[in-house]
Amino acid sequence: MQFNNSPDVLIIGGGINGIGIARELAFRGVSVVVVEKGDLCSGTSSQSSKLVHGGIRYLEHGDFGLVADACRERFFLTQNAPHLVSVQPFILPIYNTDKRRPWMIRIGLFLYELLALHRRLGHNHMISVSKALQTEPLLRSEGLVGAAEYFDGKMDDSRLGIEMAMQAREMGAKFLTHTPVIGCHIAPNPEVNVLTDGTERTFTPRIVINAAGPWADSILGMTGISKTPLLKPTLGIHLVTRPLALTHALLISAASDNRVIFVIPHDGYSIVGTTDTPFDRSPDTAAAGVSDIQYLVAEVQRVFNVSLGPSDIYATFAGLRPLLRSSATTTAAMSRDHALIRHTANFMSIVGGKYTTFRSMAEEVATAIMMGLDRPFSGTTRGLHLPVGPFPTPETRRRSVVDSARYCIRNEFARHLSDFLRRRTDYFFRQGNGLEVVELVADVFASELGWSIDEKVRELSSYRQSIGDMHQQIYDAFN
Ligand SMILES: Cc1cc2nc3c(=O)[nH]c(=O)nc-3n(C[C@H](O)[C@H](O)[C@H](O)COP(=O)(O)OP(=O)(O)OC[C@H]3O[C@@H](n4cnc5c(N)ncnc54)[C@H](O)[C@@H]3O)c2cc1C
């Protein structure tokens, strides 16, 4: 594949922010290359709670601007990518031991709706205890003193990112995946060294964007521009459990630390999360540990009439919030807002923020770049619809597993088994974790990508090993 070695813009990181900026720039006719060390969205952008939300809990910190921006983007996403983003009703149960009292919830709901203006997704209101129990029968009734119903969005985070990348590619953006940046020099002119298929290659773009999420400080370190870290990442893990919530997602207050935890229904499973603990190791080592799993299991068992065992937990996943360093004393109080840092005229970092607001962040970055390149621009991606491919739902992808695997390799940048089983389909999240189809899928990959027998065996054992290690942690959490 031929690439322009001197594009206008080179973006480091193929998470939702890198992809979003590439899409925004391609839409405006700028030549752009994205380099990603792994698969697209293999970092934080596939480890989110999968909510397209205004962030009701940020109201407690007075982050009204962030909530209003997120509510607006939430609305655009439900309009522009309805096959991947849907309206999700929530129940917020209030127990007599909760610190958040019904009157506080009432005010919060009112503000949440007000900040969404005419772009709300439904009418937020208080509901009776009996209605809450009728709707979600597994909820514990003892101590339940009230409940509220409100509306947010739910998404397939990795597919949304990958389909956005496909759209950006259609508009001229180039993506190099499994291509780590190994050197980045900014002065006197930008020079970025990458490793692609074992060969070193140098790009000389006009502008470099650091969109490496939790890895942003390591890129900054390569440039020598600053030794002061931008980030203070926190780890968030999720459990994938047997179905607990049926139609409504639940927002519960954790008894141990008053944090907010979501239990979100998906087709055939529930997602429970998340945690928020300081993390200072390499971002490559983020994983769900035993104590994180125990914390979430305890909170779920407090609010639901269920007793969970290892076989009720189908999977875990973990990611790092690329939060901006701040003087906040608790992780919950650290701002979820983003920052665009212009280190020099031709090097910027974009850090923090939420998945939901990626488009407005990309718009801000693209505007700064257009000014830097001295190019006029007009138009907005606000109303840009995402095309629907031949396998529009998780169910259609599972039903035609061979065809959809082939399609993903040929069209959706898939190169490894986990690219397909974790980020382009929902096999990983389901009971069985895709082990029931992994041989079949490996055959498709081997024939499409020309894998040798050894490569196929390595891929199979790497996928099986990762599933085995994950279940060992789950088992250890109960023993
Ligand atoms: C637990 C958790 C739950 C969340 N839930 C939600 C939610 O429900 N809704 C919401 O709106 N937001 C949520 N967020 C926030 C959201 O997921 C993140 O803000 C967003 O995904 C960050 O995207 P990013 O592109 O900046 O980072 P990433 O997705 O991490 O992308 C950075 C990319 O850079 C690549 N990279 C790193 N180093 C190099 C290198 N040397 N060379 C090339 N590439 C490199 C990485 O491989 C990675 O793919 C959540 C975050 C966490 C952690």
Summarize the structure.
It is built from 13 helices and 19 strands. With 479 residues, the chain is α+β, with helices and mostly antiparallel strands.
Average pLDDT metric:
94
The H-level CATH homologous superfamily of the largest domain, spelled out, is FAD/NAD(P)-binding domain
Segments where pLDDT lies below 50 for 5+ residues? Answer: none
Name the beta content range: 15-25%
CATH fold-type name of the largest domain: FAD/NAD(P)-binding domain
> Shape, please?
globular
- Ligands bound, unique: flavin-adenine dinucleotide
In quaternary terms, these chains amount to: single chain
Rg, Å, rounded: 22 Å
- Alpha plus pi helix count: 13
> How many extended strands?
19
Query: In the CATH classification, which architecture of the largest domain applies?
Result: 3-Layer(bba) Sandwich
Largest sheet: 10 strands, mixed
Distance linking N and C termini: 51 Å
Q: State the domain count.
A: 3
| Helix content range | 25-40%
At the first level of CATH, the class of the largest domain is Alpha Beta
Feature tags:
alpha+beta; FAD/NAD(P)-binding domain; ten-stranded mixed β-sheet; 19 strands; 34% helix; globular; binds flavin-adenine dinucleotide
Question: Care to describe what's here?
Answer:
The protein has about 475 residues and is α+β, with helices and mostly antiparallel strands. About 35% of the residues lie in helices and about 25% in strands. The protein contains 13 helices and 19 strands. It has helices at about 15-25, 65-80, 100-115, 130-135, 155-170, 215-225, 290-305, 360-375, 395-400, 400-410, 415-425, 440-450, 455-475, and strands spanning about 10, 30-35, 50, 85-95, 125, 145-155, 175, 180-185, 190-195, 200-205, 205-210, 235-240, 250-255, 260-265, 270-275, 275-280, 315-320, 340-345, 345-350. Strands 3, 4, 5, 6, 12, 13, 14, 15, 16 and 17 form a ten-stranded mixed sheet that branches. Strands 7-2-1-11-19-18 form a six-stranded mixed sheet, with helices on both faces. The chain has a three-stranded antiparallel sheet with strand order 8-9-10. The chain starts with 8 loop residues before the first strand and ends with a helix. The mean pLDDT is about 95. Flavin-adenine dinucleotide binds near residues 14, 35, 48, 214 and 321.
